[in-house]
Specification:
InterPro entries: SCO5918-like. The protein is elongated and about 65 Å long. By secondary structure, it is an alpha+beta fold. Helix content is about 40%, strand content about 20%. It has one domain.
Length: about 100
């Protein structure tokens, strides 16, 4: 499939992307991402590997469009880790502990 990323044309195939990303360790996902094989990569990292361009030269949207057209699953946001809320007992203990330090 022919696509344009950062004003440069590329002929990409699903097998070519899989081969390019083989052995590449995913960076920490903080924004948009794409699932390639069994791994989830930031789209900017994928774009950098497949185009050999600096990630500042292209947008995440350009890579997302190309990966979607090739049949890869793209994700808008990283899945948020659940935040543990303090129980009422933990909150009271923390307040009492702080009060005893003030005395």
């Amino acid at each position: 499939m022919r696509c344009v990323i950062a004003r440069y044309p590329f002929d990409l195939t699903k097998d070519g992307v899989l081969a390019s990303m083989k052995g590449i360790t995913p960076e920490l996902v903080t924004g948009e991402s794409v699932t390639i094989g069994r791994r989830r990569y930031p789209v900017k990292q994928v774009g950098q590997v497949i185009t050999r361009q600096d990630p500042r030269d292209f947008t995440a949207g350009e890579v997302v469009r190309a990966m979607t057209r090739l049949g890869f699953t793209c994700h808008a946001h990283p899945e948020a880790a659940p935040v543990r809320a303090a129980t009422p007992l933990q909150t009271a203990s923390a307040l009492l502990g702080a009060a005893s330090l003030d005395a």
